Amino acid sequence: MDFISQRIQKLAVSATLAMSQKSAELKARGVDVINMSVGEPDFDTPLHIKEAAKRAIDENYSRYTPVAGYLSLRKAVCEKLLRENNIEFQPEQIVVGNGAKQELCNALLATINPGDEVIIPTPAWVSYVEMVKLAEGVSVEVPAGIDNNFKITPAQLEAAITPRTRMIMLNSPSNPTGSIYSYEELRGLAEVLAKHPQILILADEIYEHINFVDKVHSISEFPEVRDRVIIVNGVSKAYAMTGWRIGYLAAPLPIAKAVSKLQGQYTSGASSIAQKAAEAAYTGSQECIEDMRQAFERRRDLIVELARQIPGWEVNRPDGAFYLFPKVDSYIGKMKPDGTRIAEVADYVMYILEEANVACVDGAAFCAPGYMRLSYATSDDNIREAMRRIREASAKLY
Ligand code: PMP
Ligand code: GLU
Q: What is the pLDDT of residue 97?
């Protein structure tokens, strides 16, 4: 008897988390692995945020929290959206949850009916397609390669829209490519979407602050689509708080209410202590963001320079996030020293893990076969050593 539902049987395991676990297991066995698989800042959470959490414990923030989050935190989120993004939201339009991941999934579950089409520009983060599956929607992938800096064009978007399209998931800065849509590029997409009022825009802006451009723009800046945008963001990346699990969604009121209803039956409000910490993140000094941003920019320059020295890799210069997404399909068909053949990038990634002890993720997990992802949210020394090892291991392939 198979007790597992079809819903879960159809679901893929998160490749980022799986690879990270594999690397942790190897490390526990004493192997000197450099983990470039999972994407999370390697910095500690800033002190003033940790102090706020300790205070919250002492002040007995220990009861159930409101389903949508503490009002004080939702107000702080509204102030952030006004201050940094120049968009006005009311606290009733904000739902705080267990990370941006939960709010992305909530947004889909609250708006997508079986068979509805969701446009996903690819490469896309591993969980998008799987979340659409959970909502019983149909993913419509719109691919963009390295030649286009991994960004889709308005014409591609227009061509992907059908009467069944209900949503587009936009992620800028992007995981896994680090690409950022410029104001003009977003305007092009907004102009297409303006003609199709049945389409919601799920804007995942979790990497907003990790950018190496003058300014990161949001599709919500365009009045013609503004009332159909659901913004998802959180504290994981900007404030090095991945383990605290606080993210939020800012949405048109009926959608925020629907998401609250779902959350109320499913998980309840997020952790009280973590919410107080997130509030301190949004209301306290923002200097920590800039310090970490500068470190990521320096590492971006370093990894791009070193990756371009690896024969057969095609490397672009990402504008944000902390990922490199080289095209490595020239290694397909080569032989390993043990005489077995590299049939796909997954084999190359596994070879690099075993031979070079560097953990990366196969691009296929991001709907982009032929590529691989490296997270450079690690020290400069680790980046240098990892690239040296990968170059040496790759040179043994023939
Ligand atoms: N969106 C993208 C594109 C991400 O890379 C991540 C982090 N894995 C998330 C959302 C989820 O972030 P959180 O830690 O807030 O759940
Ligand atoms: N953002 C990270 C990644 O893509 C987190 C892991 C995950 O949740 O997928 O590696």
A: 98
**Percent of the chain having pLDDT more than 70?**
100
Ligand 2 atom closest to 242 (CA): 5
CA proximity to 43, closest of 231, 214, 284, 239? 239
The Å distance, Cα 174 to ligand 1 centre, comes to 10
Ligand 2 pocket residue status of 16, Cβ below 6 Å: yes
Distance of alpha carbon 393 from alpha carbon 41, whole angstroms: 27
Q: CA angle 236-177-242, nearest 5°? A: 10
Question: Which numbered atom of ligand 2 lies nearest the CA of 237?
Answer: 1
Asked whether residue 1 carries a pLDDT value surpassing 80, the answer given is: no
DSSP secondary structure letters along 33-97: -EE-SS----SPPPHHHHHHHHHHHHTT--SPPPTT--HHHHHHHHHHHHHHH-----GGGEEEE
Q: Tell me, in angstroms, the distance from the centre of ligand 2 to residue 38's CA.
A: 5
Q: How many Cβ atoms sit within 10 Å of the Cβ of residue 9?
A: 8
Instruction: From the CA of 101, give the closest atom in ligand 1.
Output: 16
Residue 194, pLDDT score: 98
Q: Give yes or no for residue 17 CB within 6 A of ligand 2.
A: yes
Q: What is the pLDDT of residues 202-226, one digit of tens each?
A: 999 999 999 999 999 999 999 999 9
